[in-house]
Structure formats: structure tokens, C-alpha cells
């Protein structure tokens, strides 16, 4: 095959094409690594908020599963929630800030409702609204 004024074997032509594409593969690999790093960083920032939510939800379920006592005040329920949250290493969130209790005894309802704002970089943030409720009465 002729390239310019020289006769070049066909295998050399395909090698030249591969050498030209080598930079593209490296660039795509680099872009993939950068995208993966961004996902890992975002995941590392978001995961603790979801873990806290699951632990708070487990605390509410645990308190909800215990037999309701008509003599329990809201403060007693908040103390039990706080004890469960401390056992699961949920710090920086007070039960009174995220949990609302209505009713007494078997008609008690416990609502979890709070918002978490996670700064990512510069002025970009993620906002998550968490909400759950538990009824003390069956059905």
C-alpha cells in the first residue's frame, strides 16, 4: 500500500491507526476514574445520613414494639428513643428535634420527620427529607 511516496506494508498501516487511538483510550479511562471518584465522594457524604435515618427508624420501631404503657409520658418515650439512638451511635441528632409524639397509651403515634442538608462543594448541596410514622394501635 502506498502512503505518500513510500510503499508501506498493510500491517504497519493498522499499527499506525492503533497508535493514534491509544490516547483516546487513556483519556476515556481517566474520565471513568474521575467519575468513579466523584461517585465515591458523594456516597461517602450521603451514606451517614441514610444510616442515621435507618437507626432512628429502628429506634422508633423498637419503642413502638414495646408494650404501650398509659403512664408513659412523652419525656419517657423520648428517653427510650435517645437510649436506642445512642446504642446505634447516632450523635448530633436529638429525638425531640426529629420525632413528634401524639396521643397516649395504645393510641400513641410516633412521627419521624426531619431534613438533612449535605454540602458537596462550593455552593452545591444535597437536601434529603426523611419521614416515617408508627401507630401504637394494631391494624
Description:
- It is a single chain.
- The chain is of the alpha+beta class and 139 residues long.
- The chain has helices at residues 10-65, 74-87, 95-98, and strands spanning 2-3, 6-7, 99-102, 109-121, 124-135.
- The strands form two sheets. A three-stranded antiparallel beta sheet has the order 3-4-5. It has a two-stranded antiparallel sheet with strand order 1-2.
- The N and C termini lie far apart (82 Å).
Largest sheet: 3 strands, antiparallel
Question: What kind of assembly state do the chains in view correspond to?
Answer: single chain
Instruction: Enumerate the spans where pLDDT stays under 50 for 5 or more consecutive residues.
Output: none
**Classification by helices and strands:** alpha+beta
Instruction: Give the number of DSSP strands.
Output: 5
Count of alpha and pi helical runs: 3
What is the residue-mean pLDDT, rounded to a whole number?
A: 80
Q: State the helical fraction.
A: 40-55%
* Largest beta sheet: strand ordering: 3-4-5
Shape, per Cα inertia axes: rod-shaped
Question: What's a quick, concise take on this entry?
Answer:
It contains three helices and five strands, in the order ββαααβββ.
List the defining traits of the structure above.
alpha+beta, 5 strands, two-stranded antiparallel ribbon, 139 residues, rod-shaped
Write the layout of secondary structure elements.
Blueprint: E1 2-3, E2 6-7, H1 10-65, H2 74-87, H3 95-98, E3 99-102, E4 109-121, E5 124-135
Antiparallel strand pairs: 1-2, 3-4, 4-5
